[in-house]
Amino acid sequence: MYHNHTKCLACGAPDTTCVSIKSIPIGAQYFSSEPNLLENEDRLLFQCRVCQHVFFSEPPVTYYKQVIRSVGFSPAMMSMRDHQFKTIRHQYFPANLLLRTLEIGSGTGDYASLLQQAFGTCIATESDYTSRFIRCPDITFVDTHPDEDCFIADLKDYAPFDAIFSFSYLEHLKDPLLTLKKASCLLADHGLLCIEVPDTRQILSHNLVNELIPDHIHYFNAYSLQLLARRAGFQLVSLDTIWDGYITTAIFKKLLNNSIGSFPAAQEAFKSDVESTLSSFSNHDTIAVWGAGHQALFAINSTSLAQRISYIVDSSTFKQGQYTPASNIPIFSPQYLYDDPPQLLIIACAGYNYEVLGAVRGMDIKCELAILNANTIELL
Length: 380
Ligand SMILES: [Zn+2]
Hints:
By secondary structure, the chain is an alpha/beta fold. It is built from eleven helices and 18 strands. Helix 1 (about 75-90) packs parallel to helix 2.
């Protein structure tokens, strides 16, 4: 085993180790009607030192776009799928009557047919499907593949989808990140992405070398699958192992756009809100704040409150007798409210606001009350 800088195909970190796997069959489907001249190959198997993702770096097998699933689905598997799809439907979309779903890599369409029954509609993608036995004539098949440039264009008339599914598919692709990014483009903002890959814990923990095959470029673990999805703009909703530990099933939703870019505008809006609240008090009115926590300090120091506040009260004895940083406002015990009754008392105690409000009302101090809540000062 040696260390190198081959980039992890899941998380992108250039920090991997690798081992040589000797005499591995070049693929699981290269059968021939006559004796052939194919040869086994030695291949490097990589593992990311950050996310532990295991992968081959060679190109996929030549037939990877024609996903070849094990023939037929057992009644037990179909029953499990039927229950699984209806559970997802009821758990995440209880109110919607008709939903659009997409299955990427649907083989003969057996799962797509169940998805259509559970959700209302299902579009199924498969490469070169016309040449294969399609058992489900009620399903809309689209002959495309996520590695094709036209993949999104081929499906745009059916998008956006409420849910996108992909079963035992991602592990065959050289660039699964590209597929997830395209899925994101086709998914509604509220939509779900359900990805299933083989569970590899047994393979790795028991060194099951016979499980390795170049058809499966990727051997995901729960963490590497999450990191890959994260890079494509998804966050994990649920993660389970099903089918006696053989399958990892993960549900993702799109990451919310929690950009920091709106902080400056929010600060300006808060300053205006403070000005508006203070405008109904004269410069001779005494204004006090209850609370010297970090939210109160920021609100005071970053607005005109710093110039308008006469004092702060706080229950914390180690803050009493001190001055606030920069704004130099004295901090007293709450009893000081009796000595110098304010015209306005702003309660700024975050999670303790309403507990303090009760205490203030119990003190029977005659003044206007306001509460600092989120990005506003609310007069009571
Ligand atoms: Zn990694």
